[in-house]
Description:
Layout: E1 16-20, H1 24-36, E2 40-44, H2 47-51, E3 61-65, H3 73-82, E4 89-93, H4 98-107, E5 109-114, H5 119-131
Parallel strand pairs: 1-2, 1-3, 3-4, 4-5
Amino acid sequence: MTLPSPHVGPPTPRPQVLLVEDDASVRRSLQLMLEGEGYRVRAFSTASALLADSSFAGAACLVTDYRLGEQDGISLLRSLRKAGWSGPAILMTAFTSHTMIERAMREGFVQLFDKPFRPHLLIEAVARAIAA
């Protein structure tokens, strides 16, 4: 006797997270951590590399470092907004200042993390940002 198989629809696509971090070991660590939580991660070492890749359009969230060399994370978010991306963004930095925090919040970052931070806090912040 064969049991009827339950109707299974197409798999739900995993949310895509954009990750921009210039430190290769930190970038890889964060990428593996987020992928371990079920996210598809597109990782980039520079803002210009992300902006040159049109795949950012469908991303659910941006996680970016503040200091990126040629461009900072705040101006990266501004560029993404000008290109039509409207998702939530999370900023990481080891160089917090009152002025930088004000700029980040004004540009639309939903969360800011001082480096070093506890990884589970970033995972929770990404989940909250995507769910909002």
